[in-house]
Amino acid sequence: MNIRRLCVVAALVVVFSLAAKVTVSSLIGGSSNVNAVATPPARSSSSAAQATLPLGAKIDLGVIVQGKSAELSCWIRNQGTGDLQLSKIESSCECLEIHLSKMHIAAGERILAHAHYDGAKESDFAGSLQIEVQLIDDKGTKVGQIDVPIEVIRADAN
């Protein structure tokens, strides 16, 4: 790993964890992917509705070699004024799972979110992924969204 690249990633993590509602718990959650970074959700047209949701994050798992796995744990905070009781976590791709440390989140409380990408489930895929994870409450209402961009490269692209 290039030391300069690692310093840049570490500097970005410090900036985002000081200025954002999402802070990074660790860069490496048991994988060799040191590009993983958690940031607040971008305010793009696809996440315009997300801006009003009590829970939101962007977890960038970086560049992953085809067929490999990556994971990252980070904090997410209930930015709403009321408690949330989550009942479902729905990912737009079966290759990504998000696990939360608890499903009941008080207003202002932060919980640990763990993202795990399993490249073996899409072993032939190479390219960019924009995975959306929806957090659904006990009434069936979407109360949060986690966006997970991933760049998958071929093993021979080194």
What does this structure look like?
The chain has one helix at 3-19; strands at 37-39, 55-60, 62-65, 69-77, 84-91, 96-100, 104-105, 110-118, 127-137, 142-153. With 158 residues, the chain is mainly beta. The protein has a single domain (3-157), classed as Immunoglobulins (Immunoglobulin-like, Sandwich). Strands 1, 2, 3, 5, 7, 9 and 10 form a 7-stranded mixed beta sheet that branches. 26% of the residues are buried. Residues 1-47 have low confidence and may be disordered.
Helices and strands, with pairings:
Elements (H helix, E strand, L loop, with lengths): L2 H17 L17 E3 L15 E6 L1 E4 L3 E9 L6 E8 L4 E5 L3 E2 L4 E9 L8 E11 L4 E12 L5
Parallel strand pairs: 2-10, 3-10
Antiparallel strand pairs: 1-2, 4-8, 5-7, 5-9, 6-8, 9-10
Number of domains: 1
The count of β-strands is 10
Q: What general form does the structure show?
A: elongated
The CATH architecture category equals Sandwich
Give the helix level as a range of percent. Answer: 10-25%
Q: What is the highest CATH level, the class?
A: Mainly Beta
Please work out how many helical segments DSSP would assign. Answer: 1
Radius of gyration: 15 Å
Low-confidence stretches: 1-47
From the 3D structure, determine the CATH topology.
Immunoglobulin-like
**Span between termini:** 13 Å
CATH superfamily: Immunoglobulins
The biggest sheet, with number of strands, parallel, antiparallel or mixed sense and barrel status, is: 7 strands, mixed
The run of helices and strands is HEEEEEEEEEE
